[in-house]
Request: fold
Amino acid sequence: MLLRRLGKRLEQSGVKLRGPVMLQLVEKPSQEELEKGAILQFSRAPVELPSAEDQQFLREGLAPYLRRKNVSWYPRAGKLTGLQAPAGVAARARRILREHSLRVGEFLRRSMPEFTRDWEPGTSSFRPLEERGRGLSSHASNELVHVDAGAYGATHGDRILRFFVNLNPTRDRVWISRGSFGELWKSFGAEAGVPAGALEPTVAERAYSAVVRAFPMGRVIDTSPYDRRMRRFHNWMKETPAFQHGPVERFSFPPYSAWMVLTDGVSHACIEGQHALVDTFIVPLRNCRLPAPYHLLSGRA
Reply:
């Protein structure tokens, strides 16, 4: 039923289809399927969502105070960004995102204890703006297909796991994808100037990382050979019209559904939708059982 419905939407939209659908409708997360490059969708969010009043506050009460495209809570630093608001408004937004982050984290830890061992919560964000037609620069636009790299700081090869909830009560959130990192890097890596090769940081780079990562927001200004190479590929994707115009898969996420994906390993773009919760976690590479982007870029896979 899901595939037939998706196929009908693709037919109506005229989107060019590339290969098998990566979307899987699930009841619980699967580390194996995530590492294989699947997008795991829950027909209804598997965690308790903010109250109806808090949801309305996020959708309507934050608009006059937005200063960035996302309102984000950084758990490790205890910091809220994206708003210039009265203390009461900021405190309420902070509470909502903090509580949601804790619920999502607990659900994922309980569902995948080995995969989430020693992970680091990144951010819990609310995306308040309509994605379609925002006219942002290529590097900032969510409408252009990309793999995640560097937006939340250096990972040194650790994986970027993200959990999304469509908090819009009436409209789908729509994604497109051109496939997995592995597929795309093998096809376009040479053209993008992203070869395989050693990724070991220098002594100076290791010392720099050790210093900056001692601070709560240090990851944001950290760097590594892996992260620079991933960022180069990310930027090439967004800056290359011929790549953006290639065949894609299209996915629609209904109101109050949820989905999760390793966004450094699966290309994606959000081409329409407004009001979403997004939680980001950094999963240690050592927890992975299958080859990851790090292994491909280092020539070990």
About this structure: The two ends are 36 Å apart (CA to CA). Residues 24 and 40 are 5 Å apart (CA to CA). The first helix runs from residue 2 to 13.
